[in-house]
Amino acid sequence: MMTETAIVSAAITEWTASGEPTPSLMDRLAGVTVEALRRAKLRPRDVDAIIATTTALPFDNPSYITISAQHFAHRLASKIGSRGIKCINVCGACASTAIAFATADAMIKSGYIKTALVVGADNSPRGFYYQAPSVLDADLATGYPHKAVGITNPSYWAMWARRRAYEMGKSVQDIKELMALVKVLHSEYGARNPYARYKKVFTVEEVLKSPVVCDPLHLYMIAATSSGAGAVVVTEMEMAKKITDKPVKIAASAIGGPLSTEPSPRLVHFATAGGARATKPFAEWRRVIEEAYKQAGIKAEDVDIMEVHDTNCFNTINWIDQAMGWEREETDKLIRRGEIRHNGRLPVNLSGGTASFGEAVQCQALMMIHELFLQLRGEAGERQATKKLKIGLCTAYGAYGSYGAIIVERAW
Length: 412
Fold this sequence. Notes:
412 residues, alpha+beta, Peroxisomal Thiolase, Chain A, domain 1, 10-stranded mixed β-sheet, 18% strand
């Protein structure tokens, strides 16, 4: 019988402005790691492995970590006083934490280790992500969309939003207003979260009056880049029950990859498969969620609360579409009726989401896992969902077709 796993502790720093050289990112990572261990009443010697998120993208910005970030786990182990902790570094862009989490989960369930730290820190560069040229990337069109036609992330997010409106027989204005409402709802909870970078509560009018970036996306519908760090302690269930009377079970930790027939455009491609070869749009998004449901032995309707990766407000809408698998009109009704609030039918992003935090790319899912951990334990304060919670879903996606879906469950 496979060993069950659980989260016994989670900690994050406050998300702050990106591109600043201080405070030291490694100091922040060490500090939040020690805090997570303290809350679990554990010491570094009790940890068998550190799985850290990392990056080596050559951004032309002195504040961005490059080569040294490939060894965050090793550097952290040395800093906290390692006595032979196993170290693994994971890179999956915005899905890095989900992949690191799945790695830790698998290592414990296999019996290889008993306790792991899943950690991450990032100091994203300001503005759009622009990679410096590299001889290692000659096979990619990464730089060309920026240089030739000015295509950045909001370009294809806008395409997705417009396509959804078209397929539903609705106007572009309709999806624009729905995205503005998502921003408003998320901002209500960012204002209540001490770790969120942005505390302002927006109105729909304010969002729609912000500058248009790529129609129908306005500036306030798009997440900023930020700096942050987090740490989660994962153990086998037997140990978890000795550490805390409220262990949060890891029911599933699925990871996904690219589908060559996925018709949704990516930043690195000018064209995608079409015609008979094309799969249903967002099959990549849906596939990893379906795998997680299978691992956990649940259905979409069993999910009580969600934390989804909202680099822009359309993504919140799309994640609900994909996670629930229902007619898209149901998602629109859910949002317009305010049913994603803390007292609603399906609370979504009660953390405030990336809309309120900004994105610290490599560790963004740590913020989401932290929120689900608090929510399931009834410790989220004025953000706490009013319904009885049993099962939470966390989703993440990153560049080049990186995906993750994590399902957590009350275990007491």
